[in-house]
Amino acid sequence: MAHTLGLTQPANIQHPKISFAAKEIDVAEWKGDILAVGVTEKDMSKDENSKFQNSILKKLDGLLGGMLAEVSSEEDFTGKAGKSMVLRLPSCGSKRVGLIGLGKTASYPASFQRLGEAVAAASKTAQANSVAIILASSEDLSNESKLSTASAIASGTVLGMYEDSRYKSEPRKPKLNSVDIIGLGTGPELEKKLKYAENVSSAIIFGRELVNSPANVLTPAALAAEASNIASLYSDVLSANILSAEQCKELKMGSYLGVAAASANPPHFIHLCYKPSSGPIKTKLALVGKGLTFDSGGYNIKTGAGCSIDIMKTDMGGSAAVLGAAKALGQIKPPGVEVHFIVASCENMISGTGMRPGDIITASNGKTIEVNNTDAEGRLTLADALVYACNQGVDKIVDLATLTGACIVALGPSIAGVFTPSDDLAKEVFEASEVSGEKFWRMPLEESYWESMKSGVADMVNTGGRQGGAITAALFLKQFVDEKVQWMHIDLAGPVWNDKKRVATGFGIATLVEWVLKNSS
């Protein structure tokens, strides 16, 4: 990324790659820094003599002279989710033994991803180089469940270890370099699943870094350069086409260019295309991401408490999900599916050349829009991006955008809103989310609400009233999608950002990759 304002340049930090290995060995034989055991509340139950009944915990407790049972009782550790205890062992093969709580039961990928994150936290505290992870109870897991569990643990560990310190004067480097996953099987199928987790996790980290980057560094040109770099890295399956403002003008993208008009940083329309190197194409998909690298609100400037103007670098979170998915798919190379990754990137600023409230702009499908609020700009850029996506001859489109505060009000900070007229497409994406562990909730596309979006002088206005704002935004986007194309809009305004930690989450990438693979198989 090239620096602009403020002479800021992100440090080029090479994070050590964590080596994952699947093993079937006796826990007593493992040697390293931390042996972490994932335990449910049931696993922690003890007999009348205060001894563990679970076979793995019983064995470890025997090796430690009853210390594990004793300390867990003293610390009232019962295996509740989010709780953990770590013992330092001066004379044992493992320097530390940790018990990580999984809650009452653990059967979903999200539970095992949190296990990986907890192990990562313990590793940072202990400055560990080597870790082993085992479940106290894995005998009831099917072979398929063991694969997904190992993958989720690996993903959680990688993402938990990652810290974005590129903009700090003294960047920190984590030390963890090897993780053994014990008791979930071995063999090529499991190794492939761990490699998949590694690819998706690196894509999520890439997405996080895009969203974390400030607007003085990640301009539309810099975002386009990042996209082009992905295509160069995986040029056997990815190609890039970056359209200039002049080329967008030729395509009659008046809606997108209207938003971009005020900024000194010119817009860049990004189009990556994934095509497998061989074999027939069964399905054509498009992923469309909102790419506002900064949103001031325009003349309807963001002011007052709760306007969040200080984190409006996150307004390209949709594009980060799309480009992160492109990176992962470039590594995984699924057959039988063509994927278009589309981002209409620009800034929404204020100047004498900018779009004014009351202006009428014309989108590339000929529809006219009366701009009654310049801070409802993301949908204006997406309008032309969706028309462009349909013109690629795709069968299905998923768009992702930090579109409305209304969706955060409705669903809170960790759940994305899903809007689609297609039950089949909804089923596909929700099945993908069950694997990724990301949270989505389907919202209604209430057609009667379109009344509030009608203009007296144009085909539509760009925003309705405060009530049902996320729904009317989705209905607006629907006007720019061909009826023959299955379409879904995902409003990820909440989960794209972790407000507590003040960092990006990389939300959406894992689900998009899973969805593409489901269309590939």
UniProtKB/TrEMBL annotation:
Homohexamer (dimer of homotrimers). InterPro entries: Leucine_aapep/pepB, Macro_dom-like, Peptidase_M17_C, Peptidase_M17_leu_NH2_pept, Peptidase_M17_N. The keyword Protein transport does not apply. CDD domains: Peptidase_M17. GO terms for biological process: proteolysis. This is Leucine aminopeptidase 2, chloroplastic isoform X1. It comes from Gossypium hirsutum. Gene3D superfamilies: Leucine Aminopeptidase, subunit E, domain 1, Zn peptidases. The lineage of its organism: Eukaryota, Viridiplantae, Streptophyta, Embryophyta, Tracheophyta. Keywords: Aminopeptidase, Hydrolase, Metal-binding, Protease. It comes from the Eukaryota. GO terms for cellular component: cytoplasm. It catalyses: Release of an N-terminal amino acid, Xaa-|-Yaa-, in which Xaa is preferably Leu, but may be other amino acids including Pro although not Arg or Lys, and Yaa may be Pro. Amino acid amides and methyl esters are also readily hydrolyzed, but rates on arylamides are exceedingly low; Release of N-terminal proline from a peptide.
